[in-house]
Write a structure and sequence with these properties.
Elements: H1 3-21, E1 32-33, E2 47-48, H2 50-66, E3 71-74, E4 78-80, E5 86-94, H3 96-101, E6 107-114, E7 117-125, E8 130-135, E9 138-143, E10 149-150, E11 163-166, H4 177-185, E12 190-193, H5 198-204, E13 210-216, H6 218-221, H7 225-230, E14 234-236, E15 247-252, H8 255-265
Amino acid sequence: MTRDEFETFAHRLADAAAAATLPHFRSALAVENKIGGDDGSAEAFDPVTVADRAAEQAIRELIFETYPDHGLHGEEFGIVPGASVYEWVIDPIDGTRSFVSGVPLWTTIIGLRRNGVPLYGLVDQPYVGDRFWGGEGSAFTRCRDGAPRQIRTRACASLAEATMMTTAPAAISGPGERARYETVERQVRLARYGADGYAYCLLAAGQIDLVIESGLQAYDVVGLIPVIEAAGGVFTSWSGDDAHYGGTVVAAGDPRVHAAALEALNA
């Protein structure tokens, strides 16, 4: 699949997802908890709505109509193996907590892997009108129906100069992870929270310098990695290995601040 073919089709997928999600945003919709029981803690609440499922279903139908041999991995309906080297990895609403709170920082993340490696990605925030996409050396954004413009990460030589984002420090909850994360946060110039996948788009567009998170899944990252790398950034695990399947992640716009973050996380 060429980049042009991906872009044309991924825009169709994003439009179909937006048609499914936007009628429900800031509406009185029911919210289910995927985890089941609720002990009152944030960790015991993993929301899902009819909008999540409708968006993924719309994406799935288009993919299987157009590329019946491709595989698909979606957050809501799981994995369908394919006969092709290509697999679509979909998060229909990344940031469902923002969605159900009426906060327009949720996104639809559409990724394509070839032989297991992230190749292209597209991330859409349809309420605001921001869309980001990229792969194979170039990344772009557009707002509403405006003309696409190429994006690049910005220079940042040190943690002391960096603006960092994470969805929530409380979500960094693996053994010892919170203390390691806080070692970095104490050194950055500015830390901001709450943007989920949108934060990575801001990094690719040169608005921030660093994103650090943990506990992610493949559908959280496959559509983000190609955009960030094509914009000039770096995306790895906390150990510096590839993060194609999620887990702990460090995304940086400048290799120097990425190296500094890894050093602090592993001190």
